[in-house]
Amino acid sequence: MAQLPDPTTVRMRPLPNLIFASRWLQLPLYLGLILAQCVYVFHFWVELVHLIEAVFGNDVALQKLISSIGYKTDVPVTSLNETVIMLVVLALIDVVMISNLLIMVIVGGYETFVSRLRLEGHPDQPEWLNHVNASVLKVKLATAIIGISSIHLLKTFINAANYTDKVLMWQTLIHIAFLFSALAIAAADRVMGGGHGARDH
Length: 201
Prior knowledge:
- This protein is an all-alpha fold and about 200 residues long.
- The protein is built from seven helices and no strands.
- It has helices at about 15-20, 25-55, 60-70, 80-115, 135-160, 165-190, 195-200.
- The chain is elongated.
């Protein structure tokens, strides 16, 4: 039986080597997403500080919170109430979920399309990274987007008095469209055998 060549010693022809090396053009994109993650972290802490200050009676922080969540009422808000707290907390959860989505795109995308991270044996290696591929990443992203859409929809329903029926209807329809899209992606992945490949990898 002929012995297969060692892939580490095989020299690629110039054109295929150039095409393969072009994957590194994605590196600035992932670095840009890391900067976007930093912006989300900063935004999270600003909102959290405003919430804590409002708890202790800071009117300026309270008005900034009310403005940021788009909460409106006929009665002036002079202190935190349950609705404002719930909307702020949901906004913080929204930031965390988008941040998780960014991590999945950065880590999973880099591992899948650019270069191996070589995290085998690392105690903090994400469990899902063991069997990540383009299909698995696509399904995980669709699931994360549904979670983010659910938070947005819940925020809208809690603050429904400040939205028109048309806005409520369209947000609900868009969320349902996300659900069906995720189901379609998962079904297509299952039909094409992506789910089996991910488990067997």
